[in-house]
Amino acid sequence: MIKCMLLDYSIPKLSDLLQRKEIAIRELVDEAYENILRLEPLVHGFITLRDRSAVLKEAEELQKNISKGFLSPLYGIPFSLKDTYNTRNVRTTAASKVLDTYIPPYSATLVERLISAGAVLIGKNTQDAWGHGASSENTDYEIVRNPWDTNRIAGGSSGGSAAVVASRMVSFAIGEDTGGSIRNPASMCNVSGLKVTYGRVSRYGSIAYASSLDTMGPMAKTVEDLAYILEVIAGRDKRDATSAGDLPAKYREFLGRSVQGKTIGVPKEFFSGEIEPQVLDVVHQAIKVFERLGMRVTEVSMPHVKYGVSIYYLIALSETSSNLARYDAVRYGKTRKHFTPETSRRIILGTYALSAGYAEGLYKKAQKLRTVLIQEYSEAFQKCDVLISPVTPGLPPKIGELISNPLRNFLEDLYTATVNLAGSPALALPAGFSAEGLPVGMQLIGKKFRESELFQIGYAYQQETDWHKQSPPIIKKS
Amino acid sequence: MTEPIISKQTVEHIARLANLELTEEQIEAYTAHLASIIAYMKEIRDLDVSTVPETFRVIDEENVFREDEVNLSLTQQEALQNAERVHEGFFVIPAIFNSDDR
C-alpha cells in the first residue's frame, strides 16, 4: 500500500479504520491541524479556526464510544462549514464585517445533525460575503487561494470550503449553492460537490441569500463521500417549512449499480458561445467515458437558458435585498455601512427590480421566465435521465480578474444558475486538467429528488477515471 | 413599463429605500456599474411571456402546519447576547418618532 495521508482516504474507509481501532480520532484531528499549519498561510480557507486543544478534547470524548457500534460513518471525521451556517458559540460571519463579532446562540439544523453523528468541526470557511459572488473575492477577510495555483481564485462563493477539502485540511465541508456556489469552486479546486434539490436539506439556520434558490450541500473528494454525508443532512425539518416531506434514499446503496442504458442529454445551448476550448474538450471526453459505460447520448435543447443569468440575478438580487434588510445592528451585527461595494450594488439592484414602476418589467418578468425555464428542463428530462454541461465557461481566473468586472462575474454562473431556478440537483465532478495543470470540472444535472441517480452515475464515472484522486502539488510534504 | 435607466437620482432614491448610506463616490461608481448590468438585462425585456404564470416556489408543499405547542427556544439572555445596546432585558432601537411628534 502506498503511504499517503489519512485525509486522502474516503469517509467509509476512515470510518472502517476508526471502528476497527486501527487509527484513533485524534490522529485524524492532528493530521488536519498539521496540514492547516503548513498550508493555511498559503490558502487562507478559514475565517475561524477552532482551537486545536479544544477539538482534541472533543476527539477524546468521542473516542470513548468508538467500540459501541452502530455509529454513523461520519463519526470522528473532521469537517468544516462555509461561514454561512449559524454555529452555536462559534463566530459566524458570512464573510462580512457586519457580522464580525456575531456569536450565534443556536446552530443550523444540518450542523446539529452532523455534530450528533459525531463529526468533528474544525472551523468556518471563507466565502463571498452573503454568497454574493463566484470568486470568493467579495470578502471582508483574507481572499482564499486556489491550492492548485495560489495566484488564482478558488471559485465561489464556497471557495474556502473547496480549498480546504482539496488541501486535505478536512475530510469534507458543507457549502451552499444559490446559483452555482458549490459547483463552481468544486470545479476550480478539483473536488466533488453536490447541489441538492431545493428542499432536500433544511435551510434552517443558514444565513439566507435568496430564499427560493438557496441549497445546502456537501463537498468532498469523491461521490462516495457525498452520498454518506447527504444521508446525514437530508430530510424533513419541521423548522423549515420548505424542506421536502418525502424520505431521502439510502444513498450509499446506489453506488456501484450499473448505468447501462441510462441516457445523458447534451443541451446544445450549453455548448455554443464563448467557451474555453480546453473546458469544452474536457466535457467531450467525459461524454465519451459515459458512452464507454453503456450510456446513450442524445442532444436536447433548452432555448431560454441563454437568458439564465438575467433571470437568475433579477430573482436572486430581489430576494437578497429583502433578506439583508434584517441587518440593522439592533439585535446583532454592525451597521449597514459595513456592506462591501458588491453587496451594496446587489441590494440596490434587487430593491430597484422590486420597486414601483419597475417590478412588473423586471422581477415579475423574471418570475414568468422562471416558469418557462422549468418547463424547458422538464421537456429535456423527458428525453434523458441526466444532463451534462461545463461548470464554468473558462479556466480558474487570476485573483482580481473577476471582481473588477461585475458583468463578467455574473456570467460565470451561465451553466449553473438555471439549475437553481429549476430546483433540480446537480453534481460537479473533477473531469480533467488544462495544459497548465488547472482543474476543470463537469456538471451532471438530475431530475428533482434523484440525487441517488446522480450518485450512481457519478460513482461509475469515478471508477473509470482518476481525476478526483489527484491532489494539489503544494500538499506534498517537502 | 417605464424604461429602466439608472441615474444618480435613481440610485440615491433606491439607497434610501434600502436603508443604505452611500458616499458621493459610491453613488457615482454604483450608477455606472448598475447601468451596464441593466443594459445587459435588456435582452429579456422584449420577450413576450404575458400568458405565462409566475413561479413563486419550486416545491410541492404548501400550508405546512405544526401543533400550537411551546417548544424549546432561546433564553432571553441568549437572544440579547449579540446586541450592541440592551436596556433591562430589551433591545435598544433607534428612535422612530421625533420628540416633536405627538
What this model shows, in words?
- The complex is a heterodimer of chains A (478) and B (102).
- By secondary structure, chain A is of the alpha/beta class.
- Helix content of chain A is 35%, strand content 14%.
- Chain A is built from 14 helices and 13 strands.
- In chain A, the strands form two sheets. Chain A has an eleven-stranded mixed sheet with strand order 1-3-2-6-8-7-12-13-11-9-10, with helices on both faces.
- In chain A, helix 7 runs antiparallel to helix 14.
- The two termini of chain A are 21 Å apart.
- In chain A, 61% of the residues are buried.
- The mean pLDDT of chain A is 95.
- Chain B is mainly alpha-helical.
- In chain B, helix 1 crosses helix 2 (24-40).
- Chain B is flat and about 55 Å long.
- Chain B has a two-stranded antiparallel ribbon.
- Chains A and B meet through helix 9, helix 10, helix 11 and helix 12 of A and helix 1, helix 2 and helix 3 of B.
SSE blueprint:
The complex is a heterodimer of chains A (478) and B (102).
Chain A: H1 11-19, H2 25-43, E1 46-49, H3 52-64, E2 78-82, H4 109-116, E3 120-125, E4 145-146, E5 149-153, H5 159-166, E6 172-177, H6 183-189, E7 192-195, E8 215-220, H7 223-233, E9 263-267, H8 277-292, E10 296-300, H9 308-323, H10 341-354, H11 363-383, E11 386-390, H12 406-411, H13 417-422, E12 426-433, E13 439-446, H14 451-464
Parallel strand pairs in A: 2-3, 2-6, 9-10, 9-11
Antiparallel strand pairs in A: 1-3, 4-5, 6-8, 7-8, 7-12, 11-13, 12-13
Chain B: H1 8-17, H2 24-40, H3 42-45, H4 76-80, E1 86-87, E2 90-91
Antiparallel strand pairs in B: 1-2
Helix pairs in contact in B: 1-2
